[in-house]
Amino acid sequence: DIQMTQSPASLSASVGETVTITCRASENIYSYLAWYQQKQGKSPQLLVYNAKTLAEGVPSRFSGSGSGTQFSLKINSLQPEDFGSYYCQHHYGTPLTFGAGTKLELK
Amino acid sequence: QVQLQQSGPELVRPGASVKMSCKASGYTFTSYWMHWVKQRPGQGLEWIGMIDPSNSETRLNQKFKDKATLNVDKSSNTAYMQLSSLTSEDSAVYYCARSWDYGRYFDYWGQGTTLTVSS
User: Fold this and answer.
1) Mean of the pLDDT values across residues B14-31?
2) A58 touches chain B (CB under 8 A)
3) A51-74 b/e (C-beta count within 10 Å ≥ 16 → b)
4) Band of the pLDDT at B89, cuts 50, 70, 90?
């Protein structure tokens, strides 16, 4: 199984700051990487797929990059609604696996 | 609009089985795979498996091969997941989510079904 290692596990930031979350795959997954946001008590929501393609309706302050084994999600100018948990997920074959998550909290 | 409506919370005894549902609407049910994802309290996301509603082809995470059974009812656009021999480790929120065949990422999710296994 492909292991997804996400960092940091938690992150404190202020509104207006820029943050970056990273995800490393245990083997080459090309660009088959998705990112999700999950707010407390809610279902995850797709942000990015194919490493850098924004899902419909996702604000342009979000951006994804990377290929192979190293990926990142960058959020420019944090907004109050951006706080929550973020997960990466590879979509290169099965089983599909997720990173352990990054909890983004308000400083 | 696309909706995945999941069945309500379940409280079941250890050793029992449970079957939960996910009713799809707003799109062609047979054109997308349906997946099931587990999330234990305060934990991350774990993929259980997926089913192609057009032909019921199923692929399971080997970790869940003796735990989960997936099926669909095309007449009602509903996907089901049965979990057997329940233990406290199965207490979690279970989500259904769809993907298309050429990209196994999840663009729509159900609201989740909370399963509590307790005597």
Assistant:
1) 98
2) no
3) bbebbeebeeebbbebeebebbbe
4) very high
